Records
---
Amino acid sequence: MPAQTVAQFTPVIYMLGFGVLASVPALIISRLLSPRRRYNPVKFLPMECGQMPTGEGRSHFMMQYYAYILMFVVFDVMAIFLYTWASALFLIPRAATLPIMAFLGIMFAAMGYALYLAGRKGIW
Amino acid sequence: MATYPQEYRFGKFIASIVWVVLWIVIIISLIGLPIIFVILFYVPLPPVNGEVLTPYLFLSMMVDPTRTLPIVHFIIHTDIFKVAVFPGFSFAALFAAVTIFVERKFLAKMQLRIGPLYCGKIEGILQLLADGLKLIAKEIIIPSGADKPIFWAAPIAFVATSAAVVALIPVAPGWVAANVNVGIIAVFAILGFFPLIALLFSWASNSKYPFIGGLRALHQMIAFEIPFFLSALSAVILSGSLNLTDIAKAQHPYWYIFFLPISAFVFFISSLAELERIPFDLPEAESEIVAGWLTETSGMIFGLIQLGSYVKVYALSALFVILFLGGWAGPQIFPKELSHGPTAGLMGLLTLQGVYNGVTVNAIFWFVVKTFGIIMLMLLPRGISPRIRIDILLHTGWYKLIVLTFINMFIALALIYGGILGPGGLLTGH
Amino acid sequence: MSQDQNNKSGSSITPSQPPSSTPAKAAAPPTKERTEAPAFENSLVSQIVSRFGDYKIKVAYIRPLRIKVNVDPTDIIEVATFIRDNLGFDHAESVTGTDYPKDNQIEVIYQLGSYSKDDIAAHILSLATRTNRDDARLPSLTNVYKSGEYHERETFEMLGVYFEGHPRNERFLLPEDWADLPPLRKEFRIRGR
Amino acid sequence: MAKNLEHQIDESEKLGMQIVKESEDDRLMTLSVGPQHPGSGHFRFTVKVDGDYVVYCDPDPGYVHRGEEKMCEYRNFIQNIPHLERPVIHDSANITYSYSLAVEELVGIQVPRRGQFIRAIASELDRQIYTLYWLAIYGIFLGHSTMFMWPTGDRELFIDLMDALSGARVTHAFNIPGGVRNDMPSGFKDKCLRNISYFEKRLREYEDIFYTNPLFIQRTEGVGILTKEDAIRLGVTGSVLRASGVPYDIRKAEPYDVYNEIDFKVQYMKSGDSLARAYVPLLDMKESCHIMRQLLDKMPESGEVRAKLQPNPKGPLGEAYRRVESGRGALGYYIVSDGSPKPYRVKISVGSFRNMIALPHLLVGSKLADMPSVYWSLNYWPVEADR
């Protein structure tokens, strides 16, 4: 069974490989065809709208919406759990839906609180 | 220095064609055929149609082209063909190219413009080729301080990842590169790579605007990942399977869009956000952060990322068709067989005897038509909508779309437990 | 709007009085007719004059809709505050400098207008002051007329008038490496002219 | 607490580690918007962002400064016209209109009545051309590409009219001291009326596709609110002022030429946000169509269009300050004459330069994504501000 599952995924790996095979020549041909004029170092500066770049390109940057990212970490797992339940829905008894509803209720309460926190300003 | 064209004569033109044909015949007969013979003698080939492919059989194929059809039949059922050509990469890339061209013309018509006109004489049909040539001939500039390996690898990874999504999409019964039992989860797993690539690329380019754009891409995809997941969940509940082919087959009499319109709407909106198309193109918002995470791309790096994103457009609209529009289902408009009785020679080749399958062709036709319709719908917001703002976007994703998906999930559950759908339901097909 | 606008409809108005000391080479041709200074404008000016007295306020001209008064740099903040608070001229339309090398002076004019009062919406009160050309310094009116901030900064750059109390007496429109005279001074010549 | 932290830092440095002290400034990222930015034009402003919020903004104009004021001192009154229209080539009738008024006041000439009407028509046409261009760019700044294409295309209606009137599509140097350069061609009135009624239909379509779009309203409503008090204090002008609830229009406040015979309303809104600043130009365009109809209607059928002017007029000793309402607000010329054929000093007081002061005021505290919608709603034309 595990070997069969792996075999199912081999075309995906082939496809990844084929994507690489199709795109690498494009870059190589482009490298061969295109001019290479490297005498002007200003050309290789990072974009700063025509100005000399100031400050770091990679810096500590705080978007105010990290709360959503933390929520995502929790709810992604929940979503996967719901998938396993949904795919087995016809096989399990109907009474088994109730715990799922209870689980969803707990998650909704947690999510409501998290959204309330995320909506508040000044904590990030 | 001006050069004057030589005097044009039709006879010279004909003569040049004759010369070219002559040279081709000579080269094939003196070089091509011996090489094929050598290959056929020394390389063992799989038996086709009960016969081993030998030079004699090959020669007989030249006399009777119908004899090549078993070979064609063999080839198109190999994994390599499926990956490289038909449901796989080339098909998706062709779809992407058509999408780009149609988008330009369609948008132009919407904006009372003409669009590409000159390149290729007929409505600028070769414009894409010209653009591709231009991109290939452009210098790739890597900003100083950039992380070079990642900078080179990111566009390749982008194309490869979107191709990997395509591998999971069934186009017709049996026509899928990878028929995976957990297909829909695999699709979402692969789609999860895209924010990673965007973030890596923006971090690697050592510039401020890509950095902000990458962060925005991350936030956007995260905000819409959950609605995206959960809207597909309703289709899984109704069909009871994670396999995409099974989900498509399960909607035999009635498409799921009739039961799950809210889910379909949420899925459509989320896939627009996933694709970074207007109105959700804020990772590339050009009036705020120059070009977002694509600011430092140049030449073919930009071209590959565009190719990847249009392949993604195809993949996600195909997914929409499979989940909600019944996949390839549609009235049979192609004849079951093109010819009756055995035909040989050129006629047999034209009717693709033994290869032609009316049902499959019909399925592919309807699939292409539906997918194209969804692609057109995806192009439409670009002409009628301004860009959304990030806080409104996050608010929409988390507060509205998730609630909507749950509403439709409960509707789906009610349909199952009310005995309308599901095994033995009122509306279940056979 | 009041009837003051009606006596002005694009008709030509000859200046009643030349600016106090324009560096004229030859005497200007005498004005043909003298229009009477209108009553409303006169009342505005008399308010200022009665508050500060003749020795502080020198009225340059009073025309329909246009008033120009000259003050000393030391009094300008006081006068401007009075004009803003009591007369209702609430914003500066522009701040202009004119260079008079003959007098060795630079004149800075604040063109003041009003949005909030309807009866003086059409009027422009020009508040002019003069400073020495060699060491051009003036008190800034930024605190009275915030709207003049960028105009003052431009005047600093173009004429070299240092505004004391202005938050940024800095380069504004000219190139970053500008190392020449302030370009609107008369001794700055355009190349080729 | 702080001592403890310093102690920890010392200890860790002994061990060879580094602790990066985060100050308030480290959080900020300085972004340069312009001059090579799809959302700036020939203009630059530096913003510092703390996450998604702008905490500092510093405008830096001057990338297209051409010294128009200095150039004026080297040319005589008539020679100045063609180069003075360069700052706003779309709105060149208005920018020369104000100059003509000031020169007429100095030189002392009366414009014939038909000339007054024709140059008012020209200025209204150019106002439409400018405002459509502005609207097009506002559309693309918000990511609405159709709204970029439609007004750009519809500008042609008025550009064609201007072409028929003056012989040039843009930069026509049509309004000159003493009147207009040439008379109106025959059939102009019918064509103008036809184009205006078509354009009014199009304006309703703009409202349908752009102004009533929920995403557009979400992005602009309540964004960058300029209160009435602030608008007056900062001395902004034009549509920005009228969007803040001050019904001030030079055409009404100080009517020049024939505007006191025209019946029109000053369009204004009270909310003072980006939505109002985007709406007021649309209302202005509608009102401008109304004005143009009246101008065409009331115009005398024949007559002189230009007053006789000396070939090289000398200004008398004196000064003049005249202003008109341009597409971007009050546009004033302050001209000092010393009796020679050349002006002694010309100062152009333009709406864009006056509106620029509101940019830092509005941008600080708003989101980075609001930057284009606030910036371009200020009706700021970088070339005009630089002069």
---
Amino acid sequence: MITTFAKGLEKAGVKPNQVCVPSDILFEPAIVKHFGFDYFHTTRGRAIAFGTGLKLANPALKVVPFTGDLMTVGGNHFVHGSRRNMELTVICINNFVYRKIAGKAVSIETPKFSPYSTFEEPFNIPHLGNSCGAIYTARWTALHTEELADSIAEALNKKGLSIIEILAPGPDYYTSISNVNADLVRFYYDNSEIRNDEDPRNVGITPENKIIVGKFTSKERSTFIDSYNAQLGNVLGEKFTPYGIESGKKGAGGKNG
Amino acid sequence: MKADQRDVLTGVYYIDGDVASGYGALAAGCKFIAGYPITPSTEAAEAFARIAPKGGAMFIQMEDELASISAIVGAAWAGAKTMTITSGPGYSLMMETIGYGAMLETPFVLLNIQRGGPSTGVPTKTGQADMMQARWGSHGDYELIAIAPDSPQELFDHTIKAFNLAEKYRCPVMIMADECVGHMTEKVVIPRAEEIELEPRRWYTGPPDEYIPFKPDEDLVPKMVKAGSGHKLFISGRLHDERGYPVDNEHFELKYVRRLIDKIMCNKDKIIELKEEQLDDADVVVVSYGISSRVAVRGIEMAREKGIKVGNLRLITVWPFPDERITELAKKVKAFVVPEINYGQVVFDVARCCHGNANVVLVPHGGAGVHMPDDICDAILLGAKEERKIEKVIEFKTQLEKLVFKGGSKLKE
Amino acid sequence: MQTPKTNQQKKIQVDSSSMDRIHPMENVLRMDRIPHIWCPGCGIGLAVTAFAAALEKAEIDLSKIVIVSGIGCTGRVAGYVKLDSFHTTHGRAIAFATGIKVANPDMKVVVFSGDGDLIAIGGNHFIHAARRNIDMLVVCVNNFIYAMTGGQVAPTTPLTAYATTCPFGCVEPPFNIPYLADSSGAVYVARWTTLHVRRLTNAFVEALNKKGFSVVEAISPCAQYYSRINRLGDGLDMMRYYHDNAEIRNGEDTKNLDIDFQGKIIVGKFIDRERPSYTDRYNEWLSKVKGGENEPG
Amino acid sequence: MKADPSGVLTGTHNLSGNQACAEGALSAGCRFLGVYPIAPALEVSERFLQRAKKASATFIQMEDEISALAAVIGASWTGKKSMTVTSGPGLSLMMEHLGLGIMLETPCVIVDVQRVGPGLGLPSQPSQADMMQARWGSHGDYELIALAPSSSQEMFDFTIKAFNFSERFRIPVAIMSDQYLAHLQEDVVIPHAEDIRLEPRRYFDGPKDSYLPFKRDEDMIPPMVDIGQGYKFHVTGLTHDDRGYPIMDEECQELNVHPLVKKIRDYTDEIIEVQEANTEDADVVIVSYGATSRAAFKAMEQARGLGLKVGSLKLVTVWPFPEERVAELADKVKAFVVPEMNLGQVVLEVERCSYGKANVFFIAHGEKGVENTDDILRAINQAVQVDNIKDGIIKFR
Amino acid sequence: MAEVRFAGYGGQGIIRSGIIAGKAAAIYDNKYATMSQSFGPEARGGACSSQLVVSESKVLYPYVTDVDVLFAMSQEGYDKFEPGLSENGILLVDEDMVKHKSPRGNIKVYSIPATRFAEELGRKIVANVIMLGFFTAITEIVTYEGMKKALPGSVPEKALELNMTAFDRGFEYGKELLKKKNG
């Protein structure tokens, strides 16, 4: 998955050292060192909130929250981040174990605890994100490597909050990112159907149907920082120096050292 | 390092404590505040929101307190000086991430304008019942610094002081003010920028590849870098080694977490600030902090008029606690009197440090108001009179308690 | 504390010609707590009046209904209705109510709170309760601002509107609450303003009789902060704005319901559908668990 | 009151601490569990769910710990005994609602399976570093009861005890377990339902319109009612009077909050339980609680074998703290030795209550495994040799 | 040391009055002045009050205990706070708003038709500033000069002139009244 991510970075023309990954999923140090981005293991569900701070204090950063507990503990940050259109590329690792897909029951050994109780219906993440204002939504399984890399690249170059949902059961708050349950992903992959540009309303995952994957939405909307600069520029006029312009040199972080 | 001229609103003001703290934050070079409205701290956020854009700073109102504190920890790692503002209930919500911030050795400041608790309590009135929470509220072992200002001027000064301490020791610093101080309007003098001394962040300047995020300097505090500057940071809130890599052996708790505590405890002498008055020949010492220390003075004056030798010890820094100073004093005095706007918190630390050498009288107050000076005076008299050593914190019965529980109150029909 | 009389209070006053007659709302309101704390021109009282009327209309057993509020001006509603009522912590009313409903499915559970409480800090519980389809009615009184703390920006404040923590105008687009409720799975979603008292009452009746997570957004004036800071006049002027700009479009697609600063407000009933509730799913799951299979040895 | 047999799995079972906790809860009549999964507390929910059908119990996994405790408090007001289970980071998130539980005087039980902190810490290792948090973690003034079990059997017994205390005093009760106990498999004897004594909820039985939710009985505990019974009561987290109506002044604050503290402080005799061994003639007493007492007890026996007069004081209730007993012992002994799996928390209380009459040694225990006694023995040896009383805690490294 | 209680209802500028007087004392008269106010939902619409302690030395106890001056602009404020007024205190009332009882002990009562004057000036809202002028003249807790310096920046810039006039109106009325009483 990380290799795919790196491929996405490369395709987008983003250098790893501009990239900051706040995550509530445990990465392996070797991975981080190998790819060369900055990584923060945050408290559960707070990767987007943490990323909001990183981005606002240094707007030049490319902030890519990788999150697993996003839709449970971090649901609020997800909806509000989308609404604000904070410039973040959110990678949402969907940990939920779908007991049944396309009428077929999962026969593979599954993790004991998943983010929701087994009898609950999960969120339709692209739909929720889209309805809150996220500008880009896509869903892939971890095995759709090419498509995933393309989506990541595309999202990285969009201005605003993008959501890429990856069906990859396994890695969570306690176990590392490499810990994907390969059999289960294969099962999902085999039972998926690509439908780009599908209305996100229709991509909820249900026991009867195939998992719909694809790039669903891509739109333009003013980001938080742009809106901030426009509004304050209007009100304060000359007195106001736009925030975070000139590739972030004016950001709150100041110079290193 | 001196403050930046653009950030300092030099002049003489007549403002309340909350606003003074907002001005103090900007003067201290704070470039990012994330907050969420909560009475009685909101005015500080509002003040900062008004002045921030002119100093190139950002105020953002997040969706809740959990997001606010997560955002400032993130912003601190992106290089900014940061702060968040809250009161009791919001403070409780922040507990998880305060511990996380301590674990990451993140410099940030938290302003808590205390109100009456527990739960929603009395939002618009004063309290001092979050003091122990500041020290112990997050899970796990850690130490942090807490200071208690007693006037709007101090809220300005101590906000700067808090930023300085945070940068110096790379730890969360709590400003534990109370509603009374936050909503009190007094004269505040903001000096010129060149008169404000700021502690710069401890930047690491060596080759990026050799950076070890949690390798301490001699004073046990490690150096920091900015995210996104090519250091391939791996920063985990899990138990980690010097490189920041997670470790799976509790053995490291002793090695690593202990340093979080030691870096504060070993620098205690430099951190702790006390204000002492007439302690040389005192029989009784009043120990207080925040607004209570101002209120206590009246009680002290009354007791002095009655011929009691009373000294006054004000804790400007409450955490770390001045253990040694109290122990030393306990050997000389008969009693300590501790007025707090709670039912006993810091008093237990006073009692602990006495080692049985002096009696300890607690003057409690549930909040939503301040002590009656008469109560403090009577408690002083009680402390001066008692010859026996009493192995218990003596809980003084206040006039309010007598009124409410003896049927004098209008609330009890 | 004396509060100048509001519309709401005037309605409660007993008709002087028949002093011994009991006021119709007396069995729903805690008369010993009147006068209430809401400011002159506030719309919360109207929402409460509509709710009280709806209780009567829906013929609900008043001892089987529980009302939970969070913190804020609307959070005080729980204190004024004579029902089992809980005034809980900020943002957590839905979570608290979830516990009540799941532990005692016989109760009708109503959450009555404000936009800041339900949608800002409580956003997570809002979407999750909708997803789980917990059987409850959520009344969200939306006044575009945090009023209890003195006028801070809310996630519902329209773009460019002023508030104390955005002294230069709001820069964040507001939530479209019906859309959020819809996309999280609510089964009944309606929006009315407090001008539409009769329709609001009907919406409450429908939602009370609906099984599942129902959301009624009541747009309400805040004369003290929102209107004053934005120079929009008093409560009456806001009512006039609702009158001129509210457009009824029942069944409108929820994604078209954004509200711009002093722009058009589309009101109506938007969603009315069926989904199994949490308790249904839990019971179904339990029924599938065979006798000994799930029992440890 | 006797236990409901549908929740009691009478017999001897080999259970982990977590499983024993779930069994204890069901035996105590707990019928609502609201949780958010966190290691190392997961097995409590698993076990509870496995047994939910038989006991007609309700389970919900909420979206986070904040809502989990909120739901538990709500559920408790429906008349169902309720519980939540978590670990350090979750407990931190629960702090606001702990305050609500205290203020609404809601009986409920919070199980904290402690792991290494702070921050994310170490989910897979035990710790006792949330002890002070349990006592002081929420804002405002309160007192609560915290129990520390040290075996699977105690986990079972103390869970029942916790429910009894919570009903007796209308207060949230904390069970401070840890990762070591959570996963320790041991035999647990579960008695017959009729042998389990339960504290019934104190219900109000007067006329419906005369119910005041916070009007206290003589013993300061207000009787309760369930929602849905037609009492139409109001309760609030704001400072309130007997009617549950908010009044925000000093007098009401005193009337409301002081009893929250006093209802525990005045009943410490009834609440506090300690287990003592060999303290009569001891020169050194090991003060311990939870899993650490296992090592403490072993160390005491080993030291006795070496001819040292060592006793053990095990705290069953850590909060409220047995101040008087420690002060009494301090008169007689040379020193206390306090091993804890943290960097010094409860030891501060021992220091406070020994009033300078005995030395206090602290051992940050756990480095060599929970049940290792080496450090404790070395500390005892040192304690016996020190004759003068030192200022402050002696940290044993 | 002087303790002043300002009382009225929301919208009259009661809190603002406390701030202006405190600012004059603290910044322009070089004294110490601590102002506190009641906050919260209770402070809206209904009664509101603020308290000011002015002293030559640092103010320690921040609240009033034995009020020297009660500045009352509403009946409710008067009723509520009159019992707290010292036996030797001064009562200032807006006679259009407050009907006072005959004073206890040595309390001196001074009244002014502040609201009427304000209406004459065209803005009812400046009644509090007229009261402030009156307060300055009668009590001499703050100086005339100090108050005149404190007003700019404390009232809307557009209305500064009107406020200055209003202040003088109250001040002169107070001086006249004193002359009459003493002469």
